[in-house]
Amino acid sequence: MKRSKPPVISSKKLPKQGRSRELVRAIHEAAIRVLRDHGARKFTTARVAEAAGVSVGSLYQYFPNKESLLFHMQTEEWRETGATLAAILSEPRPPLDRLRKLVTVFFRSELAERDFRIALHDAGALIRDAPESRVHRAEKTAQIMAFMAEAAPALSAKRRAFVGKFVITALSAIGERITQDPITTSECDAWARETADCLSAYVMSHAA
Fold first, then answer.
1. Do 45 and 101 lie in a common domain?
2. Higher pLDDT, 36 or 106
3. Sorting pLDDT into bands at 50, 70 and 90, what band is 105?
């Protein structure tokens, strides 16, 4: 039996002119509205094109399928969240205070991404292997490692790297669970408080 090809998630072309960039921005904003109003199960390129006031053919010039469009939305969200988390980690406050704030903001962003995860479930492996995904993971790792160098300077570089990876793994695993369970914002914050308590104690035990 002939296997079907996996969906292409990269954009067909990048907008270079102002008019093209405005078109892609309009499609992106319409896609957010469609995902919010109709949910992941009813997210289609036809609905997005209609919401954006463009033809499906115009949309396909940049996004060959809904997976590509959703992946574009995901990478934009990664960029925004990454900048926010980097700003938190560089705030002039004690390291553990920054860690607590980071956990809450990160978990809330994961909760907000629930529809992305549902809509892109079938393309999960493609997303993990995409260059943009690798860049995102590398940036997140670098941010945490820089934070660990400040929070636990007495540790050897090897041990600090392990502790940092442990923190990243714990955040990612619990964050993924948050996107899978139908929880409220207050419940998400409760998960954040408990996780922050555990990770703060863990980091503190290595700080001296």
1. no
2. 106
3. very high
Helices (H), 61-94: 66-89
The 8-class DSSP code of residue 17 comes to S
Do residue 109 and residue 169 come from a single domain?
A: yes
Q: What confidence tier does 1 reach under pLDDT thresholds 50, 70, 90? A: very low
Closest C-alpha to 51, from 37, 65, 64, 39: 37
Q: Decide if 159 contacts 206 (C-beta within 8 A).
A: yes
Contact predicate 111/178, CB 8 Å: yes
State whether 135 and 155 are in the same domain: yes
User: Within this chain, do residues 23 and 44 fall inside the same structural domain, yes or no?
Assistant: yes
Quote the CA–CA distance of 69 and 61 in Å, as a whole number: 11
Q: Let me know whether 118 and 54 are in one domain.
A: no
Q: How far apart are CA 97 and CA 88, in angstroms?
A: 10
Query: What pLDDT was estimated at residue 2?
Result: 47
The span from the CA of 194 to the CA of 92, in Å, is 24
Question: Residue 116 is encoded by which pair of tokens?
Answer: 């992305």
| 5 domain-assigned | no
